[in-house]
């Protein structure tokens, strides 16, 4: 059988008239969606404008975050709006997490009316947003005070929430430690997985109850270099060496605690600023990267009045009575009082000092 050199095929191209109809329908659909997007955003802006905040009832930790944010984006927090990129100076790491706390609390609102064109768009049947282009602003005050007046008033806050402030310090301190770890890992080409980073973050947070940020920098420095050395050994490679870092950090800290080793402190690198949150916490609590976690806890307790609260005093009655009985039975009253004063000067709270001395007397 002989096939012809050419044969008719079905055209996949629309004729000019059909193409024009198709384009007109698509354009109309696009206009309809644009109008619907504008309508929904206008409604969203209207609802946002009716939301107000009683700033006198805002928790202590969120107050500190707002004061730090004000410094990071001045004057945009109280005068206009700001974008996520403007907040980079808030903390050394996890800036999005800190901002999420403020957004979820309704203290910071997004303002579509000030966002650039294309920030909000349709994807399928949903409105999507380019998060880096969102414009935020401080939520209006329930008493209709101006934003700068709200911030000035928050600066005079009398703090009472010890747990909230200490946990905020822990959040910040973890960010400070993890930023240093990131830099060291990048220096030696160690690529850690999200799971490994989460494990390290958890270990460091627990250690910060006792040690300072700068002490944990020294731990990170040592462990990362050990891993870099391990990567050059036979049968090892860089991914395998990097995978040992979480375990090495944990074992190093366990050894330090078990053998009562005094950790060295590292100086803050010039390219690693504290962030405005660190500055505000430092002014309120009198702490910095060299302040051990147990000392921070004591300072927070004194600041908030928890160190001398009736419940704390009641909880200490029995341990104090037991310690005094032990001291007298061993005829070491003077030594116990001197050791107690030494521990308090070192920044430990009363409960820790009593427990530490009591264990020494019993051993």
State the secondary-structure class: mainly alpha
- The radius of gyration over CA amounts to 30 Å
Order of H and E elements: HHHEEEEHHHHHHHHHHH
Strand order of the largest sheet: 1-4
Annotation field: number of helices: 14
Distance between the termini: 106 Å
Q: How much is the average pLDDT?
A: 87
Strand content: under 5%
Uncertain stretches: none
Helix content: 55-70%
Biggest beta sheet summary: 2 strands, antiparallel
Principal-axis shape equals flat
Instruction: Please provide the count of β strands.
Output: 4
Describe the fold and architecture.
This protein is mainly α. The chain has 14 helices and four strands. The protein has helices at 16-50, 60-73, 95-104, 147-154, 162-187, 194-207, 213-231, 238-243, 245-258, 275-285, 293-304, 310-329, 333-345, 350-362; strands at 108-110, 120-123, 126-129, 136-138. A two-stranded antiparallel ribbon has the order 1-4. A hairpin with a 2-residue loop joins strand 2 (120-123) and strand 3.
